[in-house]
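Here is this case:
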Amino acid sequence: MNKVVLIGRITKDVELRYTKNTNNAVASFVAVNRAFVKQGEERGTDFFNVVAWNKLAESISKYVAKGQQIAVTGRLETRTWEDDQGIKHYVTEIIAEEVDFLERRKNKEPSDDILNGTSTPIPDFTEEDEVETLGNDDLPF
């Protein structure tokens, strides 16, 4: 089984790119704080290359900003390539299959998408909001 689960903070704004041939969206991001701290030292941070594709990549780039905490579930993948000088490079990445946003974006100004009406903001719910509940007789099973 090849499964990776990380909880970490975005180290810089997510970079969204599109592949040349197929125009697929691809985004890369994330860092993770270590769970332990040696006495007298600061908490260490590990930086992992996380890659998301297509709709997931677009959602992450739209709703996640530097400093936000996210949870990533995916798989570990290693790839190689040769550069123009014939030097072989290796990279190990986490291919994101699922991402959970653990914090709201801390953007004080509304985004351009919201201002021009092309985005639907996520509503805030409070305890006072009415929530419809189903009784046992209303359940389909």
Strands lie at 4-9, 15-18, 25-33, 45-53, 69-82, 88-101. The chain has one domain: 4-106. The chain has a mean pLDDT of 77.
